[in-house]
Design a protein that fits this description.
The chain has 28 helices and 10 strands. By secondary structure, it is an alpha+beta fold. The protein has a 4-stranded antiparallel β-sheet with strand order 4-5-6-7. Strands 2-1-3 form a 3-stranded mixed β-sheet, covered by helices on one side. A 3-stranded antiparallel β-sheet has the order 8-9-10. Strand 9 and strand 10 form a beta hairpin. The longest helix is centred in the C-terminal third of the chain and has 42 residues. The protein is elongated, with a radius of gyration of 44 Å. The termini are far apart.
Length: about 700
């Protein structure tokens, strides 16, 4: 009797027959085991040699030792026979038979043994010809789309085994696959396989990379991001990254392309691409770390090893555990006994650990410098790297809205994220250095952790708002946004906001005061010189507003008056209700006359006209700029329009400044007299004066 450990009890299945339980002695030769299996199914199969061929396909396994008690083994056609039969059916003329053969081929292509036999029979070339000739059959062969989907699936599965090189793919095949990607309306399954095939071409062959880049553009690929199918979006993003972020030279060219002004539609597509790319991080962001998973804990141990590689481990278990706890504390973990617990909160979950490991491996010098620099500080001023990295990852996910759907009409994309194939990780590396720098500038302690994170968030947000074209430019902008600069910007913005709120409250009062002053001046009236008087003696006329602001009174005068002119002497009137508008400069009727065109520029700037019903105009030329502003503002106030003269703006600024200064005076407990103080008596002598002459 063989040892019990060599005997394995398994169930053998064959289509059309009941499963049989047999015992396999792993020490027996493979041929003997095959014969035993065949003997069990002789009632089902007439030809034992055929069945041997079937059994060998299952039993000739490199890992026959992995078969355990209770395993179920299914008998199937041998790879060679299956490949031959499927190839014959694919080349048949029956559409239904060909469709079923391609459907079965799509399933079997994942098996390495079958793939080898099928490729050796030139099966892959047959599939390529079917794809290349697809357009001529598409219009009249029923079920062509379904057949093509299975063909592309099988082709991709067969190529993924790496049996033949992608460089052997023909140009016509590439053009046909690219045509399916570029078509506006194509079956979802065909589009998925076509995108995946193009991505594999780009990643596995430099020559095909050039060809695919010629056949497709980023604009065409970005259109596939507008669909709701997440698999299509993922494949499109993967192909875009493979095409445009493959080499440093390609990345530099892509930077130039992104930095140029883009149309709103293109900007929205780039924004969608950015959002969906970041959304690929959501799975890691929402994955909790298992504190009992040794594989995950080894990653944390790797962080410790890289930081403290020079320290030799003690021989004793207890001493080693104490050293590890000390090291994890210096790494800044909240739970140094078991730092895996720090990564159980989502977000950021395992994404934070991924970022930390990337920094430690790709930017090892920076990582070691940050860790050791904080270890050498006083305890109260050390920056906890582990806690900071976890919180920073959570903050970056929130700032970039990882996991959220794109907003319709939003064009807020950041060009720098299109300049590096690991843009997210590099962005984290830049920001963790900023955090460490800000911590030192603030001379922060553990109690200031949240305050530091608030400042860092503001620094990152301000820098992103400037839309830096590259990660290096982001680094430069963050370097200029020091803690002192952030404080200065806060102070400036706070003062601006305070000024704005103050002005919003008191500006209406000041404008009303200016309006009343203008109307008061119109009630006093002004004297104007008549134009076109060539005689030696000048003629004047006077105009003033009634005290109830309802009528304009005007009339001619023989000479310039010394004060106000009584209403009785002003015989002509214009009801304010009849006034339609006030015109200035060249728009005035009296400035359009031929004789007036010869007037100098000064007269033109002082001219204005009041239009009133029925289609009449009262023309003015003010004596100076002040009178011009007073009257144009006054008439605008009568019409209920905005006062827009230079004098109004100047008066508004002066009065606003004075009002704000008065309101900011510390007048608490100070009695302000209602009457002005008396004027003091003149001094008896003026000997104290200084003679400047």
């Amino acid at each position: 009797m063989p040892p019990a450990s060599d005997i394995v009890k398994v169930a053998i299945e064959w289509p059309g027959a009941n499963a049989q339980l047999i015992e396999i002695d792993q020490k027996k030769p493979l041929a003997s085991i095959v014969r035993e299996v065949c003997d069990g199914f002789l009632t089902v199969m007439r030809s034992s040699s055929s069945l041997i061929d079937l059994c060998v396909s299952v039993c000739v396994l490199q890992n026959r030792g992995d078969i355990k008690n209770g395993s179920i083994l299914r008998l199937a056609i041998s790879p060679m026979r299956a490949a031959r039969q499927l190839l014959e059916r694919i080349q048949s003329h029956g559409i239904d038979a060909r469709l079923e053969a391609l459907k079965e081929l799509a399933k079997l292509s994942a098996d390495p043994s079958f793939a080898t036999e099928f490729i050796n029979m030139e099966g892959l070339a047959t599939l390529a010809r079917l794809v290349e000739s697809g357009t001529q059959y598409e219009s009249y062969i029923p079920l062509f789309g379904e057949m093509l989907a299975f063909t592309l699936t099988a082709f991709l599965e067969l190529m993924d085994h790496g049996i033949i090189s992608w460089d052997l793919i023909s140009v016509s095949f590439i053009k046909q696959i690219a045509a399916y990607v570029n078509q506006p309306m194509v079956d979802v399954s065909i589009l998925q396989r076509s995108l995946a095939i193009l991505e594999s071409m780009v990643l596995n062959s430099h020559s095909l990379y050039q060809r695919v880049a010629q056949e497709t553009t980023v604009t065409q690929l970005i259109t596939h991001l507008q669909v709701s199918n997440q698999e299509i979006q993922t494949y499109a993003i993967a192909l875009i990254n493979a095409l445009f972020l493959k080499t440093p030279e390609d990345r530099r060219q892509h930077i130039i392309r992104v930095n140029r002004p883009v149309k709103a539609e293109m900007a929205h597509q780039l924004y969608v691409l950015q959002v969906l790319t970041f959304n690929l991080l959501e799975e890691r962001m929402m994955t909790k770390m298992d504190p009992n998973d040794q594989t995950q804990r080894d990653i944390i141990f790797e962080l410790r090893r890289i930081a403290f590689d020079g320290d030799s481990d003690p021989s004793g278990t207890e001493k080693r555990k104490a050293i590890y706890i000390k090291d994890y504390k210096m790494l800044g973990f909240t739970n140094p006994v078991n730092p895996a617990i720090d990564f159980t909160q989502t977000p950021p979950g395992m994404l934070a650990l991924d970022n930390m490991l990337y920094l430690a491996k790709v930017h090892q010098d920076t990582y070691i410098r940050i860790v050791l620099e904080n270890c050498s500080r006083e305890d109260k001023h050390e920056c906890p790297f582990g806690r900071s990295a976890i919180e920073l990852t959570r903050m970056l996910c929130d700032i970039l809205q990882v996991g959220e759907l794109p907003n319709e009409g939003c064009n807020d994309f950041h060009p720098m994220f299109f300049t590096h194939e690991r843009a997210w990780e590099e962005f984290f590396c830049v920001c963790i250095q900023l955090l460490n720098k800000t911590w030192k500038e603030m001379r922060a302690t553990a109690e200031d952790f949240n305050k530091v994170m608030t400042v860092v968030r503001e620094q990152i947000t301000r820098a992103l708002a400037m839309k830096p074209p590259s990660l290096e430019q982001l680094r430069v902008k963050l370097r200029s946004l020091s803690y002192s600069e952030v404080l200065r910007l806060r102070q400036s913005e706070r003062m601006s906001q305070d000024d704005f709120h103050w002005s919003q409250r008191i500006q209406p009062e000041i404008l009303e005061l200016i309006k009343q002053q203008r109307l008061s001046r119109l009630c006093e009236g002004s004297c104007f010189r008549k134009l076109g008087n060539r005689r030696r003696q000048e003629k004047f006329w006077f105009c003033r507003l009634s005290l109830n602001h309802k009528v304009l009174h005007y009339g001619d005068l023989d000479e310039s008056p010394q004060g106000e002119v009584p209403f009785e002497l002003l015989t002509d009137t214009i009801p304010v209700s009849d006034i339609k508008a006030v015109l200035t400069g060249k728009d005035c009727p009296h400035m359009k006359e031929k004789s007036a065109l010869k007037q100098n520029k000064e007269v033109l700037e002082l001219a204005f006209s009041i239009l009133y019903d029925p289609d009449e105009a009262l023309n003015f030329v003010a004596t100076n700029k002040y009178e011009y502003c007073i009257w144009t503002d006054g008439v605008s106030a009568l019409l209920g329009k905005e006062l827009g003269s230079d004098l109004t703006r100047s008066d508004l600024d002066t009065l606003m400044s004075m009002e704000m200064k008065l309101r900011l005076l510390d007048l608490e407990n100070i009695a302000i007299p209602e009457a002005p103080p008396p004027v003091p008596k003149e001094p008896s002598t003026y000997n104290f004066t200084y003679n400047y002459g």
